[in-house]
Amino acid sequence: MKDKQAERAAASRRARAWVRRGLAGAAVCMVAWTGWEGASFAGTPGTPGTVGAAGSTPQAPVSEEVRRGEYLARAGDCVACHTANAARPFAGGLPIVTPFGTIYTPNITPDADTGIGKWTDAQFLRAMHEGIRADGAQLYPAFPYSEYTRVSDDDVHAIRAYLTTLAPVHYTPPGNSFKFPFNQRWLMMFWKWFNFHEGRFVPDSRQSVEWNRGAYLVEGLAHCEECHTPRNLMQGLRNSQRFSGATQARWHAFNITPDKTAGIGEWSDDELVRYLSTGVASGRANAAGPMAQVVEDSTQYLSGDDLRAIAVYLRGVPPVSGGVTHPRDQWGQPANDVMAMRGTSVKGVDGAQLFVANCASCHGWNGKGVGGSAPGAYPSLIHNSAVGAAQADNLTLVILHGVTRHTAQADVLMPSFGAHLSDDEVVALVNYMTRQFGDPNAKITATQVAVLRKAE
Questions:
Q1: Exposed, middle or buried by CB within 10 Å (0-12, 13-18, 19+), for 292?
Q2: Would you say 278 and 300 are in contact if contact means Cβ atoms under 8 Å apart?
Q3: Could you tell me the pTM of the whole model?
Q4: Are strands 411-414 and 403-406 parallel, antiparallel or unpaired?
Q5: Which residues fall within 8 angstroms of residue 339, CB to CB, at 6 or more apart?
Q6: pLDDT at 29
Q7: For residue 87, what are the contacts with CB-CB under 8 A and spacing of at least 6?
Q8: Is residue 360 part of a domain?
Q9: What mean pLDDT comes out for the span 83-101?
Q10: Omega into 290 within 30° of 0, i.e. cis?
Q11: Are residues 171 and 237 in the same domain?
Q12: Alpha-carbon span 74 to 8, nearest angstrom
């Protein structure tokens, strides 16, 4: 099991490295508004006149539509789900585990036999807007067509135009592993009756242009609800609790409603923009797990105008408290245990000793971090969302699996400690950290650690 996990982790690192090389020229994207009906905008994602993104044909002349499609594909984070192996960019094969079985993402390169090279524009549009494959089969909602249905025809055509410039990869991903009756795609028609509303985004005339732009992105290509909204028994989104937080792949996607206690109501617009572009909002949060990948592959490439529009929109959604009574980024105090431990011997499994031995060299023996508010700083564990969360799962996952996040501002690497610490040692370390730096009511058990250890 450990060998397989290590192999998957190495493949993930190779894929991210490949994406960084391919997208290196895309740090700055300027938006040119051409009206809401088409929601069109142009970017400078690579060298002028070429397609600079991962998997693209080098130095191929491109149209403005293709350049816009490249930007939109980043906004939709297509590469994250459709790249399982760096040698097969956009060729799919990434396993997505659901309560009903495992889905392997499809090949979306322009290969005629195994990809979407033979798809017509109309078939691609239907897949994005209605969740129906080229052969008429129903797509599983792991593909977020519930969100993509809001994307304008013009923008979908631009994405399609960009995908046709990718290098075709002849690769057939593994088949899905669903048991009966979930392997019957036609049953998705019933799921759609309860959980899917087809239709394009309609601007709200009562709101500003900026708010509408944010709504178009958040509710469409960025598909933020897919991770940050709880799900019902059918795995549809609970609209009454939009953006109030949910668990995905054992990671908790936090509440991003404007509630001042449970959500991001106390965050400034600048902090939100900085977090989405760098993965860091000093004194608030540092992106890890799936969110680190979102920042690395997608949001860091969005223009400042688009990021600010997202912040404006999120401030306008209904706040949801969920019974939270203390902000997760307002816990903790500096530690001084290192003073008391001087001259003492190690006795059993001690959280403070484990912290000094494994964490203090980067985060400081007092937990205040090193490097201040710089994107590449070792973050403070005080006023830290992962440490101050009501559940210690994310903190535990970070300790077990580490953090890798690459942006234009910094390459962040926290090593994984899963191979070096036993379940009991992880329990002692996590519970010490939440007691000292975070929510003292957040605790983890050895049984929970064993489950989280298996997470990707």
A1: buried
A2: yes
A3: 0.84
A4: antiparallel
A5: none
A6: 32
A7: none
A8: yes
A9: 89
A10: no
A11: no
A12: 23
